[in-house]
Design the sequence.
């Protein structure tokens, strides 16, 4: 339903002339884009439940070309607050990528270099070390290779058929619901058990698919990229105790500093939705010294965000919005302005 409304809003914005009028009323200064993976489309892989987390290098280049033609400046995350403070600033875009996938280095970096576009990679250090337990990846990889899955939870046993793509998608939804409903600690142990039961090597996967530390270091000293923090184990910091949250953030920062020599000054909340990052987490991030922190709440930037630098919204550029027309509407900010009842702030 929510997606239907979103689509309708997008469509109405495209065809209506009020876009120009709304835009001047909103005083949008710029936006932060959120990406995860950048890799070639896997046309022959029908089961892609995490497709939302990736775009192709061609689409990335199209988006950057569009922004360049539309006179947006590409800026580093370091420049956001100055840009927000200056009323004479041109429209700006900061690009961010979460987690630290190897394709960011191998596939996306050359595209950013071509456009001279600075970018930030928020690295979850445990995913680089292979010690994190990224449950959404484990589910996808296990379900892909199985015809049937048996899973015990809360004393009852689930038997899920996974022979067809339809079955596999259904199984992914059912299991995601379970993984999302348990505590962070239980989520970790459930995911570990699940991987073990189906002989999926979580560490080997991450060592293969995530950047190596020497690549993270090369990015950190490239002049074009910034390495941001994203915790160590990629846990939802609002769903653990403040001590656990602080500890996981600190380990992530220390690890990045030890491996690159640069202390991260910017942060991305893992998962980043309202239930993963609210006012308490915004205070914690500020207390831990981050200059900015980004959420996955959707939105563009206005001057008032200067007072909320630990709660910055982003625009997700993802596998579901791979058309420039949709992107153009989104980056205008109009859909958010309408969805937030004529306010550009979503910070509670
Ligand atoms: Zn993440």
Sequence:
């Amino acid at each position: 339903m929510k997606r239907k409304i979103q689509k309708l809003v997008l469509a109405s914005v495209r065809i209506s002339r009020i876009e120009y009028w709304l835009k001047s009323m909103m005083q949008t200064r710029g936006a932060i884009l959120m990406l995860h993976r950048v890799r070639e489309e896997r046309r022959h892989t029908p089961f892609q439940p995490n497709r939302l987390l990736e775009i192709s290098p061609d689409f990335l280049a199209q988006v950057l070309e569009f922004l360049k033609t539309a006179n947006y400046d590409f800026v580093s995350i370091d420049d956001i607050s100055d840009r927000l403070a200056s009323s004479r600033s041109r429209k700006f875009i900061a690009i961010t990528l979460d987690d630290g996938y190897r394709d960011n280095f191998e596939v996306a970096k050359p595209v950013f270099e071509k456009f001279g576009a600075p970018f930030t990679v928020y690295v979850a250090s445990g995913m680089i070390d292979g010690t994190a337990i990224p449950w959404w990846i484990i589910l996808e990889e296990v379900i892909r290779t199985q015809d049937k899955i048996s899973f015990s939870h809360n004393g009852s046993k689930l038997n899920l058929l996974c022979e067809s793509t339809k079955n596999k998608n259904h199984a992914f939804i059912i299991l995601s619901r379970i993984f999302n409903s348990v505590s962070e600690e239980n989520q970790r142990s459930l995911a570990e058990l699940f991987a073990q039961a189906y002989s999926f090597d979580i560490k080997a996967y991450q060592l293969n698919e995530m950047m190596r530390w020497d690549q993270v270091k090369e990015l950190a000293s490239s002049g074009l990229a910034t390495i941001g923090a994203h915790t160590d184990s990629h846990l939802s910091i609002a769903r653990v105790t403040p001590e656990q949250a602080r500890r996981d953030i600190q380990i992530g920062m220390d690890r990045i500093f030890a491996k690159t020599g640069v202390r991260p000054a910017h942060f991305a909340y893992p998962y980043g939705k309202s239930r993963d990052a609210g006012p308490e987490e915004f205070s914690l991030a500020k207390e831990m010294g981050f200059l900015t922190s980004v959420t996955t709440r959707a939105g563009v930037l206005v001057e008032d965000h200067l007072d909320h630098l630990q709660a910055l919204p982003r625009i997700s550029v993802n596998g579901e919005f791979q058309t420039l027309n949709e992107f153009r509407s989104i980056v205008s900010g109009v859909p958010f302005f309408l969805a937030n009842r004529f306010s550009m702030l979503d910070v509670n």
Notes: Residues 2-130+212-339 form a domain with the TIM Barrel fold (CATH 3.20.20.370). The CA atoms of residues 67 and 73 lie 8 Å apart. The chain has two domains: 2-130+212-339, 135-203. The chain has a mean pLDDT of 90.
